[in-house]
Design brief:
The complex is a heterotrimer of chains A (242), B (205) and C (246).
Chain A lengths: L20 H18 L2 H21 L3 H34 L1 H7 L4 H30 L4 H28 L6 H28 L5 H29 L2
Helix pairs in contact in A: 1-5, 2-3, 2-5, 3-5, 3-6, 3-7, 5-6, 5-8, 6-7, 6-8, 7-8
Chain B lengths: L1 E10 L2 E11 L3 E7 L5 H9 L6 E6 L2 E2 H4 L1 H6 E4 L11 H11 L6 H10 L15 H9 L1 H4 L4 E5 L7 H16 L3 E5 L10 E7 L2
Helix pairs in contact in B: 4-5
Chain C lengths: L1 H9 L3 H33 L13 H28 L2 H33 L7 H22 L3 H32 L15 H33 L4 H6 L2
Helix pairs in contact in C: 2-7, 3-4, 3-6, 3-7, 4-5, 4-6, 4-7, 5-6
The chains are: A mainly alpha (242), B alpha/beta (205), C mainly alpha (246).
Chain lengths: 242, 205, 246
């Protein structure tokens, strides 16, 4: 079934509407969400990992509710952190392998914008599900409703932060030997402030001190990373593609 | 007008080439030839601005491409060894996304028309992983039809194409050159491109 | 330090730097030994016995200067790496790579001497106080830098990637330190702090400063030696290296 190839360029090849920054951003997010939906395993892997890790701790420590209530904020946050880190490997790797990342770096659209789009989509696919399922897991540790609320809020502020900062590590280790473990080594120290303030917020709520201080610090870190992380990520991507 | 002066390239320990220069004008094409490993792909990637040269200067309309950044990238279209396609997306989705990521709006109707012209009519809605190698290559080449970039940098564009497609692509490049565009390309095979002032750059070890 | 900066501008190429570094190394080692002897004498013989901690506290004359050096060297390393990235100079990046293992060594030394101090004082080999925990994280940052550079084959890519990591790290170090301090003060557990050394006698401070100087001279000497090795390896296909190793 041979299809004939039209041998001339249309006269209107040069006349196309340009896309504004917002449209480009939306296009990137749509693309990555579409890809994630067609490769469902990715979404579910992080979620299952989160659930499994959280369920492992009582098996290792013992079913005593009083103890579990104390360790709950830390355990839930560490599990979320590990799940986020696991999913970072896939942020740029597929695009790097099939050449689409190269085209993004060559695109006249600002690379920082494209990176923000990819990170946003990554959070929607791997971070947001954690936020939504966390209260359910918190019940396994007998957390009070207010604490569950603060847990969700801390993860809502924290998981985008993890995606943004993690993107730097993911870009630095593209195509590098031992990438997965190296990525963890690079990213975990940078995750520690988020862990401290995130888990700390829930603990503060439980102990009656109020989570406002922790949450505002977390929000401040998020704001800082929204401004600076994309710069570091684009620089790292350009280096990876040299 | 693309000019290169004194370009040098080092990969790991090896100096691939040095003191390389050329000038490419509107309507001109540059054939880069050389054996495997002589640095053809490295040179093309340098011209796109992907890798910085070890030494030397690349200028577009007199200004250094490193300084122009996004402005220069608007003027360049690069097709490398990879097809730059997402296997899970359909040909049409790939085309529209590629355009959107370059800041260009291509509607469904036009996308279907373009895919028809590369010989994929009726296959626009198939996920790319169901297409043959030659068909995938043609989806990648469809970029040439919607882009308005004046400088085409094509690395082995004729690979995986049958003879009819090779003739077609040669025609497309010819039309582009006639319309005032310019092209830098590498290819192992001899391809007759009708128009354009041709230069050859041979990279030797 | 300023002496070295002036030299860089004149000796910015690996080829010119190599012999200069070779001449400087013995001097810095000598200074390191001199300051080290002075510092240890101050620390072990001149400084008075502490009222509450007895003689065992004297390990702070190694522990505290090692901590200072590990933090100082990270900033210096980030500076050279950043310079290499911004100005595209190979030698600056090589310097950063040369400093990293020494910085990691001091971080490890700080942790180890911290443990040696802690055991007789408070009965445990490890205490999660702000200083030690931050030091541990700093060690991870160093190891990450070294591992990243080791994993990337292409030297210029390794230089640039390491530079980004070091710069991101240097911005994060104050944030991490602050968050760890916050974490530490809010939890009742670690009320004992190693940084709360009781009222410092002047001689104690002098002892630590002199030891810090000794470590600094040592770091410079070792970094120069390592930088020379890196130069030889990276420039091995040039003529001058082939002559130098004959």
């Amino acid at each position: 079934m041979r299809q004939s190839l039209a041998a001339d360029l249309p006269a209107t090849a040069a006349e196309h509407a340009g896309l504004g920054a917002l449209s480009v951003l939306v296009a990137v997010i749509r693309r990555d969400l579409l890809l994630a939906m067609r490769r469902k395993s990715e979404v579910l892997t992080s979620l299952f990992f989160f659930v499994i890790v959280v369920s492992l701790f009582p098996l290792g420590i013992g079913p005593e509710m009083a103890l579990l209530r104390i360790i709950a904020p830390g355990v839930l946050w560490v599990a979320a952190l590990l799940a986020a880190m696991l999913s970072l490997q896939r942020l740029f790797a597929a695009d790097y392998a099939d050449g689409t990342l190269e085209q993004m770096v060559l695109s006249p659209a600002p690379l920082g914008l494209l990176v923000m789009g990819k990170v946003a989509a990554h959070w929607l696919v791997t971070g947001l599900p954690l936020v939504l399922i966390a209260p359910l897991l918190g019940l396994q540790y007998d957390l009070a409703p207010q604490a569950l609320g603060i847990l969700m809020l801390s993860l809502l502020l924290g998981t985008p932060l993890l995606s943004l900062v993690g993107a730097i590590g993911a870009a630095l280790t593209l195509g590098v030997r031992g990438g997965g473990v190296l990525l963890s080594l690079l990213t975990l120290p940078l995750y520690i402030p988020a862990l401290i303030f995130g888990a700390g917020a829930v603990e503060a709520e439980i102990s009656g001190l109020g989570a406002a201080g922790h949450l505002s610090l977390l929000a401040a870190l998020l704001a800082l990373s929204v401004f600076f992380a994309p710069w570091a990520t684009t620089a790292s991507l350009r280096i990876a593609l040299e | 007008m693309l000019t290169a002066t004194d370009l040098a390239c080092v990969r790991g320990d090896r100096r691939l080439f040095a003191n390389l220069g050329f000038a490419l004008e509107s309507g001109g094409r540059l054939h880069v030839t050389g054996e495997n490993g002589s640095g053809k792909t490295s040179l093309l990637r340098m011209l796109c601005g992907l890798s910085p040269p070890e030494a030397g200067d690349i200028r577009w309309h007199g200004e250094s491409i490193a300084r122009q950044g996004d402005e220069y990238r608007k003027a360049v279209l690069y097709l490398g060894h990879h097809n730059a396609l997402k296997e899970e997306l359909t040909a049409l989705e790939n085309l529209r996304t590629a355009a959107a990521l370059s800041g260009v709006a291509v509607e469904d109707a036009e996308g279907i028309e373009v895919l028809g012209r590369v010989g994929l009519a009726g296959r626009e809605e198939l996920p790319v992983r169901f297409l043959s190698q030659g068909q995938k290559r043609r989806v990648a080449l469809s970029r040439l039809l919607w882009s308005s970039a004046p400088l085409w940098v094509l690395d082995e564009p004729f690979v995986a194409l049958d003879s009819a497609a090779v003739t077609w692509l040669a025609g497309i490049v010819g039309s582009h050159l006639s319309a005032g565009g310019m092209a830098v390309l590498t290819s192992h095979q001899e391809v007759a491109i009708a128009s354009g002032k041709a230069q050859t750059l041979r990279l030797t070890q | 330090m300023s002496n070295r900066i002036i030299n860089w501008f004149r000796f910015g190429s690996p080829q010119a730097f190599y012999p200069l570094a070779g001449k400087m190394v013995p001097w810095f080692f000598a200074l390191a030994v001199a300051f080290g002897v002075a510092g240890l004498w101050l620390g072990f013989f001149v400084a008075p016995t502490d009222a509450t901690q007895g003689e065992g506290y004297r390990i702070i004359f190694v522990h505290v200067p090692a901590s200072w050096m590990s933090m100082f060297l990270y900033v210096v390393m980030a500076f050279w790496a950043g310079l290499g990235l911004a100005l595209n100079t190979r030698l600056s990046s090589m310097m950063a790579s040369a400093i990293a293992p020494t910085g990691a060594l001091f971080a490890f030394l700080s942790l180890w001497t911290g443990a040696l101090w802690g055991k007789p004082m408070w009965g445990t080999w490890w205490v999660w106080d702000a200083r030690l925990t931050s030091e541990l994280i700093l060690l991870f940052l160093y190891l990450g830098f070294i591992a990243l550079q080791a994993a990337i084959d292409e030297p210029r890519r390794a230089d640039k990637a390491g530079a980004i990591l070091a710069l991101v790290g240097v911005i994060n170090v104050p944030i991490i330190y602050f968050s760890v301090k916050w974490w530490n003060t809010l939890h009742q557990g670690a009320s004992i702090s190693m940084t709360k050394a009781p009222s410092m006698a002047i001689t104690m401070l002098w002892g630590m400063l002199v030891m810090a100087l000794s470590f600094w001279m040592y770091s410079i000497a070792v970094a120069l030696v390592r930088a020379r090795a890196i130069i030889l390896e990276r420039e091995r296909h040039t003529d001058w290296v082939k002559h130098a190793v004959e």
